[in-house]
Design goal:
This protein is an alpha/beta fold. It has two domains: 195 residues, Alpha-Beta Complex (Quinone Oxidoreductase, Chain A, domain 1), CATH 3.90.180.10; 141 residues, NAD(P)-binding Rossmann-like Domain (Rossmann fold, 3-Layer(aba) Sandwich). The chain is built from twelve helices and 19 strands. The strands form three sheets. Strands 4, 6, 7, 10, 11, 18 and 19 form a seven-stranded mixed sheet that branches. A six-stranded mixed sheet has the order 2-1-5-9-8-3, with no helix packed on it. Helix 7 links the parallel strand 13 and strand 14. Helix 5 packs parallel to helix 6, helix 5 crosses helix 11 and helix 8 packs parallel to helix 9. The longest helix is centred in the middle third of the chain and has 13 residues. The termini are close together. The structure holds nicotinamide-adenine-dinucleotide and zinc ion (2 copies). One zinc ion binds next to helix 2 and helix 3.
Length: 363
């Protein structure tokens, strides 16, 4: 079967034939139909997020269950599913304390199955499964807890987006920041994830949603998806956010790019008593530098956000319900569809800030 392989950092992906083993106990084989391209894939290619090579990337996918291994009860052959890139164990501290997105087994096994082996091979050698998912492929093997069944009438390209960007963004607004009706928020970075934060804030009833991005097309998109104001990125945006919020700063500010200087900007745009939410993934050695005097006397909260603090089993279905009800616009987020062979064009577009979300249509 064909898959897009990252052989070494900073190289284009190589769409080539790879070998795939059948599912073992507790695993399923999924025929991928559509897979979105998320900035975390680009960060993996660039070495910003550490990954082992050779690896099949892709973690925002949807498809059809083709085969199930022994002891699988969650899905049957023929089910349509969204891939969750955190495969929860339902036993660890985090799973038992209502934070399955932080599941230790899912984190420990980034690249291989639970037993440390892979089901993918390249010319007989080990080939790793990126982010537990490896969706840039015609077929992938997943733990059964990494698939969530969905209704069959949901288009695959929309379902794919829910596997990462949409759930992360909407979850950041609803779960992590718990945006309240009437609040004033700002969102730095209006790509696929940032636009989903904006949609989540709109759904939560935010009165003012300020979008910040250097790309004019992204600012226009942000306004189509619910932003009430759009600002050109830069240090000047801090004063502009203050001016739009009676000089106080916003109730919640989301950094959705992944850069310490922008995390600091987000913090400075946040009002006393407000929340700064870090969604963008910075480099491994990044450090947040903010004035802690005003943090103490201003009671500000800085909070990380992983996978929108979501529980895929619970949250994918209601996100799809909102889509079906016309309250979450996912169709317009897909601005380009490419075949797997042309996947590198998706990264070219992402580097230039072109296209909102590219979806690779696989089979
Ligand atoms: N926390 C999580 O669980 C999680 C999940 C998915 C993605 N992410 C991360 O979210 C981030 C965004 O992902 P995406 O897929 O939306 O990326 P994207 O490439 O689609 O969008 C990034 C946006 O940031 C904008 N930007 C660049 N420089 C900027 C600046 N100086 N100020 C303001 N905006 C700027 C770009 O113009 C673009 O619109 C990445 O860091 C990604 O790794 C995190
Ligand atoms: Zn992602
Ligand atoms: Zn767990």
């Amino acid at each position: 079967m064909k898959a897009a392989v990252l052989h070494a950092l900073n190289e284009p992906l190589d769409v080539t034939d790879v070998e795939v083993e059948g599912p073992r106990a507790g695993e399923v084989r999924v025929s991928i139909r559509a897979t979105g391209v998320c900035h975390s894939d680009l960060s993996a290619i660039e070495g910003k997020i550490p990954f082992i090579t050779p690896m099949v990337l892709g973690h925002e996918g949807a498809g059809v269950v083709e085969e199930v291994g022994p002891h699988v009860r969650r899905v049957v052959v023929g089910d349509h599913v969204i891939v969750s890139w955190v495969a929860t164990c339902n036993r660890c501290f985090f799973c038992l304390h209502g934070q399955p997105q932080l599941c230790q087994s899912g984190m420990a096994a980034f690249g291989s199955m639970d037993d440390g082996t892979t089901r993918l091979r390249l010319n007989g050698d080990v080939l790793y499964h990126g982010l537990n998912a490896a969706t840039f492929a015609e077929t992938t093997i997943l733990r059964d807890t990494a698939v969530v069944p969905i209704p069959k009438d949901i288009p695959f390209n929309v379902a794919a987006l829910v596997g990462c960007g949409v759930t992360t963004g909407v979850g950041a607004a609803i779960h992590t920041a718990q945006v309240q009706p009437g609040e004033r928020v700002a969102v730095i970075g209006c790509g696929g994830v940032g636009i989903s934060v904006i949609q989540g804030c709109r759904l939560a009833g935010a009165a003012t949603i300020i979008a910040v991005d250097p790309v004019a097309g992204r600012r226009q998109a942000a306004q189509r998806f619910g932003a009430t104001n759009a600002l050109e990125a830069g240090d000047g945006a801090i004063a502009e956010v203050q001016a739009l919020t009676d000089g106080l700063g916003a109730d919640a500010v989301f950094e959705v790019v992944g850069h310490p200087a922008l995390q600091r900007q987000a913090y400075e745009m946040t009002r006393a008593g407000g929340r700064t939410i870090l969604v963008g993934v910075p480099g491994m050695d990044a450090e947040l530098c903010v004035n802690s005097f005003f943090m103490t006397i201003g009671e500000k909260t800085v909070r990380g956000c992983f996978y929108g603090s979501a529980r895929p089993d619970r949250d994918f279905p209601w996100i799809l319900e909102l889509y079906r009800a016309g309250r979450l616009d996912l169709d317009s987020m897909v601005t380009q569809t490419l075949p797997l062979e042309r996947i590198n064009e998706a990264f070219d577009a992402m580097r230039k800030g072109e296209q909102l979300r590219t979806v690779v249509s696989v089979s």
